[in-house]
Amino acid sequence: MNTSNESIREFVASTCLLLDEENFDEFLEQCAPDFTYQIVAQSPELPQPMVWLEHDRGGMLEMFKMIPKHVRMKGVICRNISVYRIRQLDDGRSEVLSRLIALHTDPEGASKVIAVGKYLDVVDSRSESVPKLSARKVELETRVWSPGLHVPL
Amino acid sequence: MARDANQWESAPNLPEDHFISAATYTDETILNEERDRIFHKCWKFACHESELPNSGDYRTLDHAGVPIVIIRGEDRQVRAFINSCSHRGSLIATELRGNAKRLTCFFHLWSYDQNGDCAHITRPEGYQRCGVTTDKMGLRAVKVVCRLGLVFINLDDSCESFDDFVGDAMHDLEAPMGTVDLEVFHLHRVTMRANWKQWHETNMELYHEWGHVVNRTTSVAVPGYHERKWKIHPNGHGSLDPLRVRYDNYRGWDSRDSLILPGLAPAEFRVVDLFPNTTVIIRGTVIRIDTTTPVAPGLTILEQRGLGVKGESAEDRRVRQTHHNQFWGPFGRNLSEDVIFVEAVEQANRRGGARHGIIARHENLMSQDDEIMRAYYRVWSRHMGRSASDPYGVRNSSRVKVAAA
Question: In what order do the strands lie in the sheet with A132-140?
Fold first, then answer.
């Protein structure tokens, strides 16, 4: 077993857990200073993909701070991932491709799938300290949407 | 003080057009009649011309339960047809988008040209006895009009002209949408557990802007917000005086002082509501077009488009997308909250928990006046032959209960 790959898998999974728990401060601690985040989706009516959300680290911070003030879909979200591939980039960082299935469970305990897609992450584990998430691109196959999410996938 | 059952269920002591019966939103018979009397008779937004950029490009949609195909011909004209083969009725175009010189039915391979003429019948000799020939088997044409890039259709061959229907309701869109070529860069759908009219109401009654933190901070708090006037157009349409929104009042957002669409002041907000269920909203740099498809009384598909300038640079498009997504995107701060609002109303309406919605605000036609809604429902009532406040016509019967003053 490739220990390095194992730690990267665990790291990516931990970022999902932090988002599930809405521990946004600690999630941002896992992000590099130049972190970028993007959600893209495809509309069957349009020839080009859509960008649904795009932020740098500072933008993510501002978004997180405003979440409590908004009208939100109640319940919890579970970001279930399967890491499909880890490959090393030329600069020594790792590109991680994961399948994402996001599930929502409402306050009465009814669960459903709300989104299917992929994470394309860039993880920087070159230094001796803990890994950092340099970038996350969420590529959604879902484009019929649920209301009031306000949180990133 | 809290009310008893009789008081709760009784019609409010208000003029007839100042409240809406919950049955207007929940009754299946009313929805079926709306399909026949409104959706099959009125001009309805179908798509944007940029979705059909090339000859042979087509789009398909469901219009009040009727499958439609819209196609751009080699003569650049946009035409619309019922998407049903003249042979056995099958859908012909089965994709949401495509390109075809001819539309060929996959069932028996009959085909049609871009004018809707039947171009080919498989083994035509089999029809010689009965005289079924291509010249008699064209598609059912649907009236279509393009205005400011918006494509409208009407299933009623004897309908009034589009210009008579819309009047000058689209006047505020002429400069921003008629000066430069625009294109749709965003299209998503939301399946709402709510009635289609409830969604259109969120684009008319601005009183609910108090519920959105983003609207409170960027609009309601801005000087001039309450002093804008609604213009009530004939046929159920409405438009509102513009407002310069303070986007930078919302944490983390910048003002919208550049990339302004033609004819607008920086950060200018405009809204045009078109009967029965289309709204165009402009926020300085970017345009949103809402329309809905009713599925059931309490189930509606919302289709939401974002438009920018065709051919602009990638950097400009990125800015416009950001502006679009901040308010209207699936992870945006405004539109998704509206879905939660209307679903909450539907939950109470569904089994008779709620009985009436009050639309009784009077503010001299200023922005949070409900007259825009009252005018809309007067037109609705004209089409339906029913009162929105008393859809079953029982108020004058012995069963009427009227709340005490």
Answer: A50-56, A31-41, A132-140, A111-124, A94-105, A76-88
- Residue A101: closest CA among A64, A142, A137: A142
Q: Which residues from A are below 8 Å from B291, CB to CB?
A: none
**Res A126: pLDDT:** 86
Domains observed in chain A:
3-140 (3.10.450.50)
**Residue B60, Ramachandran bin (φ over 0: left; ψ between -120 and 50: alpha; else beta):** beta
Q: Are residues B221 and B360 in the same domain?
A: yes
Please tell me whether residues B153 and B172 are part of one structural domain: no
Integer-rounded Cα Rg, in Å, for chain A is 16
Question: Cβ B340–A72 below 8 Å, yes or no?
Answer: yes
Q: Which of B45, B26, B24 is nearest to B351 (CA)?
A: B26
CB B92 within 8 A of CB B108: no
For B109, the token pair is 């391979």
Q: Based on the domain organization, do B154 and B243 belong to the same domain?
A: no
pLDDT at site B351:
86
Q: Is the pLDDT of residue A2 over 90?
A: no
**Which helix H or strand E contains B281, and what residues bound it?**
strand B278-283
Residue B102 pairs in a beta bridge with: none
Kindly state whether residues B363 and B221 are assigned to the same domain.
yes
Supply the pTM of this predicted model: 0.94
Kindly state whether A152 is in contact with chain B, defined as any CB-CB distance less than 8 angstroms: yes
Residue B346 lies in a domain: yes
**Whether A68 contacts chain B with CB within 8 A:** no
- The amino acid at B287: I
State the complex-level ipTM.
0.93
| A 38-57 near B (Cβ less than 8 A) | 39, 41, 43-46, 48, 50-54
> DSSP secondary-structure letter at B150?
E
φ, ψ dihedrals at B227, nearest 5°: -95, 0
Chain B contact for A75 (CB, 8 A cutoff)? no
Q: Which of B97, B127, B158 is the last residue of a domain?
A: B158
Interface test with B, best of A50, A55, A144 (most B CBs within 10 A): A50
Q: Does A137 touch chain B (CB under 8 A)?
A: no
Question: Which residue ranges of chain B lie beneath pLDDT 50?
Answer: 397-405
Measured between alpha carbons, how far is residue B370 from residues B114, B206, B235, B297 in Å?
45, 9, 17, 23
Cβ–Cβ gap A148/B337 under 8 Å: yes
